[in-house]
Design brief:
Strand order of the largest sheet: 3-2-1-4-5-6-11
Helix content: 25-40%
Number of helices: 9
CATH class of the largest domain: Alpha Beta
Largest sheet: 7 strands, parallel
Distance between the termini: 55 Å
CATH topology of the largest domain: Rossmann fold
Radius of gyration: 20 Å
Shape: globular
Structural class: alpha/beta
Strand content: 15-25%
CATH architecture of the largest domain: 3-Layer(aba) Sandwich
């Protein structure tokens, strides 16, 4: 049994990570302000990560999974507060890669501003630098779009809702734009692979090895609900994010390092069925955006 510290622990990735390690029989500590319900089986440390004080003093964690670090300050404050730990895994983002770099992006790509992600991406770069400046042993994971149960972001849930309401689906252009996904459980499984295999490489792109077109993705989402979509192609000069869940930006990560350690990933169709089952039980667990309202008024 490991002592595992998960930052956050109440929303999507951090909550899933916490519950994953609880199910494995580990002693899982989550650190958050206590403003939301805690998962069963976790040990709650009530603190703001920007005011940790002595909340972690005298404690040892075999594993720290830092899901909620968005800036260098976030990383430094947590490292300052930790007394003792073994492995540190920072969940970063593919937003650290500039959109102008050659694709698929390998981990060796020079990092820089991505105009679609802006400050979010450059802050993540600084968070990575802060970790490796103080702990070169720390692992850094750079996922594409994460999905699966507990996803509070209005992505697949938007498509599920369109399907449930028997709405036609408004598709950007011809629907050929490519997206890359990674199931949140596969993210957890890869953390396990790191702990078991202890590779020398410290930075990993993580994701499904294959991309999928937005048309194919929507079809898979509808299929998860037992329906088939009727498409309306949007070719007008309309900002895509006003009626669709993703920016008009396609990219692909080179995940060969990940595959060497963990060759198999969950098929997208299976993961979307899991996501739909969770959404049906937790429709209020998603932060909705007025995409349907925009479509009804403007398209």
């Amino acid at each position: 049994m490991k002592n595992v510290l998960v930052t956050g622990g109440t929303t999507f990735v951090s909550r899933f990570v916490a519950e994953y390690f609880v199910k494995k029989g580990d002693a899982v500590f989550v650190i958050n302000r206590g403003s939301k319900a805690q998962s069963a089986g976790v040990r709650h440390i009530r603190a703001d990560r920007h005011a940790l004080g002595d909340s972690l003093r005298g404690m040892h964690f075999d594993l720290v999974v830092d899901v909620t670090a968005y800036t260098a300050e976030d990383v430094n404050l947590l490292l300052d507060a930790l007394d003792s730990y073994g492995d540190y895994v920072l969940i970063s983002s593919s937003a650290v890669y500039p959109e102008t770099a050659p694709q698929p992006f390998p981990e060796s790509t020079a990092l820089g501003l991505n105009r679609f992600w802006g400050k979010y991406g450059t802050d993540k770069i600084e968070a990575e630098e802060a970790l490796h400046g103080r702990d070169p042993r720390g692992y850094i994971l750079r996922p594409p779009y994460l999905y699966g149960p507990m996803n509070n972001v209005y992505r697949e849930a938007f498509v599920f809702e369109c399907a449930e309401k028997n709405r036609p689906f408004y598709l950007p252009g011809d629907g050929g734009m490519q997206l890359q996904f990674f199931h949140v459980e596969d993210l957890c499984r890869f953390v396990d692979a790191l702990l078991e295999q202890k590779p020398e490489e410290r930075i990993y792109n993580v994701g499904n090895p294959e991309t999928v077109s937005v048309r194919e993705w929507v079809e898979l989402c509808y299929r998860a609900t037992g329906k088939q979509p009727e498409f309306v192609n949007v070719h007008a000069d309309v900002e895509q994010r006003k009626y669709f869940s993703f920016y008009n930006y396609e990219y692909k990560l080179d995940v060969s390092r990940q595959q060497a350690l963990m060759p198999d990933v969950k098929p997208l169709a299976d993961g979307l069925r899991e996501a739909f089952a969770w959404w049906r039980e937790n429709p209020d667990g998603v932060v909705k955006k007025p995409l349907m309202e925009f479509i009804d008024r403007n398209l």
